[in-house]
Structures
1.
Amino acid sequence: MKNKPYKRKCGDFEIRVLSDGRIVMLAPDDELMEIARELDPNSELLPPKTKDDRYART
Amino acid sequence: MNVMDPAIHNRAGSRAEIAERSLRCCRLCPRNCGVDRTAGVKGYCQLDASVRCFREVLHWGEEKALNPSHQIYFAGCNLRCEFCTVAEWNEQPEAAKLMDVEQLAAVIARRKKEGARTVNLLGGEPAVSVHGILKLLARLDASTVVVWNSNMYYNTIVDELTAGLIDICLADFKCGNADCASRLLGSADYVEVAKSNILRAVNHSDVIIRHLVMPGHTDCCLEPILNWVAEKLPNVKLSLRGNYVPPVEATMAPSRYLQTDELKRAEHLAAEKGLTLVQ
């Protein structure tokens, strides 16, 4: 029987590292966005980090 | 201070009641299931009458005019795109939390204070949760810019229910022909339905047509869509996206990522047809 790849379940998150070094995050939530910002602080796709951390979760 | 527009509040509220009644024999979308969702029966979208959200996030990766955009993800969908990045929530929407209108309206107000320029209703597909979305719209501050981020696969009733209550229709036009739509989305009539709904949406909303460029689908999907837009809506804003994510094990959908030059070619094609590209 063929071994099937793991199928994402609700609540899972998925990060892919491609062979050329790119990192793909699927449908990121706040936590994944935070990780993305650590990896690429200058990305224009991410909110700027501010002193008062406007994006802190309450 | 949040100021609700009484006219919008009343209109959205009364339309929510109409939408809820329509769930007794649900024909919100062309699946025309005809099931009584209010009795707990689920349609093709895997939803009964409950409205469920699985994520809200402030996002900077939408079209520039929308950013930062407060994305609210509704669970459940009427398409089965093989390349969907949130498919798990559409297959099992009951795993998502029930929407609490008051709580969500408060979150929207908070995100607005954090800088959100728009509220982006997506999924899944928002149309299959339109009854709950209308209740939410009735609670929003009058200055909130509402984005209807949809696959455009729904029946006319959804357009009638939302007309005048949404500001921007972000029309995700996925495929350019019936064969690809059937294989990739699970819906052979998708293209014609989406076209009709886009033409209706321009009558009451600012429309951005978004197309996710798929590797190897230039002749069959990209070009027919560009040709149709150029013919029918030459001045509409068009957004070509290059962030296609292949499924782990693709059967029908493309199995690779889009290359930079493929996106450039797509943009060049659009420009050649005189279309207005937005970033």
Note: The first helix of chain B runs from residue 6 to 22.
2.
Amino acid sequence: MNIHPMLEPFGRRPGEIFDRAAAFHLLSRAAFGGTPEEVAVFADLGAEKAVERLLAFPDQSAEEQAADDTPDLSGIDDLPRTFGEQRRALAGMTPDDRKAFQQKIQKANRELLMATGDWWLGRMDGGKFPLQEKLALFWHGHFTTSAKDERMALLIWRQNELLRKFAAGDFKQFVKRIGRDPAMLDYLNNNDNRKAHPNENYARELMELFTLGIGNYTETDVKESARAFTGWAHEGDEFTFRKFQHDFGRKTILGRTGDFDGDDVVEMIVRQRACAEFICRKLYAFFVTEEPDGILVRNLATMLRENDFNLRPVIGALLCSRAFFRPEVVGGRIKSPVELVVGTARLLGMRPPGVKRIMAALNQMGQTPFMPPNVKGWPVGRDWINSATLLARYNTGVTLAGLVDVDRIIPDAPADAMVDGLLERMIGRAIDPAKRAMLVSAMAGDSSKPARRRLAQWIAAMPDYQLG
Amino acid sequence: MNLSTRRMFLRRGLALLAAAPTVPSFLDQTLMAMTLAMPSRTAPTTGKDGRILVVVQLAGGNDGLNMVAPWADDAYHRSRPRIAVGAKEALRIDDHVGLHPNLSALKGLYDDGRMAIVQGVGYPNPNRSHFRSGDIWESAQPENERPTSGWIGRYFDNNCPGADPMVGLTIGDTLPLAMRGERVTPLNFDRPESFRYRGPDAGMFRRLNGIDEGGAIATGGGATNGATGGSAGGAANDAAGGDGKVNGATNGRGAGGTSARVNADGAAGGSTALAAGGNLDFLHRTAMDAQVGSDRILGAVGAFRPSGNYPRGSFGDGLKTVAALIAAGMPTRVYYVTLGGFDTHADERGRHDGLMKQLDDGLGAFWTDLRAQKNDDRVMLMTFSEFGRRVEQNASGGTDHGAAAPMLILGGTQKGLVGKHPSLTDLDHGDLKFGIDFRTVYGKATGEWLG
């Protein structure tokens, strides 16, 4: 294929220099921010090697990478894991005991959900493969599943691991596995999708939100696909195929007729031109700009098809493309609340706060992990911002920045050096000189610890800090 | 107060701009963007005498059949043997329907001629997805699969262009589609006490966000002139790390060159959000709107002493805030409050009864306040939900997603029962058929009430 000039790697043409601002930009988008030391290391690599290093993670879940790398699951050790087990456990109980036991299960699930959130934020912040976690966050918003409708936190953790394993893997295989994922089967009611009474929820969202986008399939395609997914269910955290509830009959889907099952549907979907474009558009909106460029999206889609839906080369090309480093792209994107929270902790050299502690703030800002607002998933760009969320973002940033280890991160120095040093660390690109001057004059004559702390808080409450 | 603070700020700010040619550029851009967006027509003001609409969303799909129960209909009791509102419980409206037993305050308002019940409201080909049907109700554009504006937002667009963002106020962390305009973006906040900047030195915060005319323009003007006029490039380089190379490459060399190539290569560039400063200006504007709103809202709420006894929880708190803001004469034309939890697939009588009580306590207290303020004649309140529920109870003592349902309207010009109660035997896939299109009700709210 002909690669569009804007998708060629940045840094090969005269004048294109992968400097610290560019490395800062890459680490903001493709990771959760880089400390000055990391930025310096990446800047020395050049764009292509830097992206290669970010993408050098194994196509494995965390547990596959290291067997003890899991959230703390001890709270659910002695609790039932399937509805069958739960039914049996409840069988001999008095109504009061039953209620108490159910409350215990609910509480344990809430705790595990928080623990899973903490574990994930910890991986985003300090894990070896931040791009894998960034992609898991992207796919979490894409293959939306909310824990609000979920009885078992265990399933949410398992799904999170699936998102990690396939983060940059084979998209076709990924979609097939998502269709068998217990949390998804629950969330979109495919457990209730039976031959006698098909439930269209999963089939519809598969086409509308996961692969093709509205307008690229018909209502008949949805109805017929729902039949192909009948009998796909789960028992506890295991997928199960209930063959007596599966409709083995002939279906006509996307112009083809046969006795299709769910995997066949996925194969037919990816053959549609719209599919690769739909995915590439979303990746572009997530990593580059909320208003994707049609030509570049189509070019990436061709690349995805030519790589047989292997995501890694496409993500790699996107992240080191000249389009990605365009000046109007650098610092032009509104951070998601999770990026804001994890990024602030990283940039200021702290551990991210526990999910439980910042749950209220995450809710106010509109992004609580495992609880997307609806099946459409997380927004991008301006949709994160309204008057309430913006003030909540400022207040969250200010609170986190107030926890900074002042002497380590903002050593005492002349006012302009302190301001410049901290702006480089937190914003990493030029800001309006008038704002910088305000900060310098506010710091003049006072380099006390409280004043230096305040400086970090002011920067966290600047609109410029919302972008990255 | 006829002029909003924002408009006052604009006037003053622009006057200062004219006087100070070296105003910081980020302020300049924000102000210019706002000015350009502002048409000549002035926004209608509300203050102490204009009419107000309060919209109450019952989120999750309210069971209209148990809210306004056809107690005399055998089919009702046959379909819902476990969960129907009994003939003896119902607060009788007439010899066919009655209100849920927990709606005693609303029954009082109905008897006083202050409430209308619009029966069987819905739309053709009802959708039973929360999201889709919610979008249809909020956008009032059933044919639009991906609506970007709502029926109230478009009212603002057409009737209050360039208005103060306080023209609409939503209580909640998300701005509902219904309130979004294509041009007007009204304010939303969850709790007034958290709707403010809580960091150190609010003055500095306001100046850095371009909110405060006093700092950045008047006093800051002198201080920043040097930096802006004299050594912008140098200062920018310093800011980004002091080695000069950081900025140079991205903003100067690589950038300029790359940019030019984009268009030469034929990719469609030049989108608005991508335009330099697009999102930064947007953030400045939102911060300014939020902060100006926050000051006024906190002032109004702090001074308020309610007469009504509001239920605990976010719904009661939200209505109390709205009562405070109406009392303070805000320029707000539409308020939006949500009561959630109506997706009663199980344990209907436990959960729905509780919600009816919250609704009744909240609206009762709210109307008591409006009466005490003598504002009840200029406020109309309407409830809506994305759908009603299935006529027949399900196996869990609950109900599944349905279609048509009643809307309650307090104040305004209508009273009594409006429309016919839908038949419980002539159904569409087990759901009630609508008799009144919801857009007719909206039309009355915007066209006749708000005008």
Note: Confidence is low (pLDDT under 50) at residues 1-44, 214-276 of chain B.
